[in-house]
Design a protein that fits this description.
Blueprint: E1 12-25, E2 36-41, E3 52-60, E4 66-72, E5 83-85, E6 91-98, E7 104-109, E8 114-125
Antiparallel strand pairs: 1-8, 2-7, 3-6, 3-8, 4-5, 4-7
Length: 191
């Protein structure tokens, strides 16, 4: 039997958060158990009327080979993962997740692990006040510190120009780090 085509969703616009916000941090002793699903309330972190959220999901010190799945609590759990990590590793990945009617998402952890959820913005009806239109562009490298060899120092901040945009969706890659660490991206006014 062929499934019925899904109804076309209305166009959405993006409302970036003023600054990234940590919505969940289980390192306070509320670690996920293997096979556990939790509802994470995000109403305080998203714009009114939001249909989806832009999040960074982080697995911290997984107790075994682990993956997280994130989805709208109004839907069935997907058979896909949002981020994967080896035992003991810390790994992060960006995801755009539909919100439930109560502005929540559900997260499943396949192994015992701590989980971080950072919110970067939300998707609202395109006509909503403050919503930025989303326009696709051909993939292009905006910046490469390997050429010329301009290795970043720890705690260094750099301004990377982004032509003709109020917000961007990017893939950020750190290569050959001298030690464990992280890279954060923020609008220059709040950097």
């Amino acid at each position: 039997r062929t499934p019925a085509p899904a109804a076309e969703a209305p166009p959405l616009g993006f409302v970036p958060s003023a600054a990234p916000a940590r919505a969940l941090d289980t390192r306070n002793g509320t670690r996920f158990a293997a096979g556990e699903t939790r509802r994470v309330a995000l109403g305080a972190f998203v714009a009114p009327g939001a249909a989806a959220v832009s999040v960074n999901l982080t697995v911290v010190a997984a107790g075994g080979l682990a993956y997280l799945s994130a989805w709208s609590c109004d839907d069935e759990q997907p058979s896909t993962s949002s981020v994967n990590a080896d035992a003991g590793a810390t790994r992060a990945a960006h995801a755009i997740v539909s919100l439930g009617a109560d502005a929540s998402i559900c997260i499943f952890a396949s192994a015992a692990t701590d989980v971080l959820v950072d919110v970067f913005g939300s998707y609202v009806p395109a006509a909503a006040p403050g919503a930025l239109g989303f326009h696709t562009a051909a993939p292009a490298r905006l910046y490469d510190s390997r050429s010329p060899s301009r290795r970043w120092a720890a705690r260094e901040t750099r301004r990377i120009p982004v032509p003709s945009a109020q917000a961007v969706t990017i893939n950020l890659t750190a290569t050959g780090p001298a030690a464990d660490g992280f890279v954060t991206v923020a609008p220059c006014a709040s950097a």
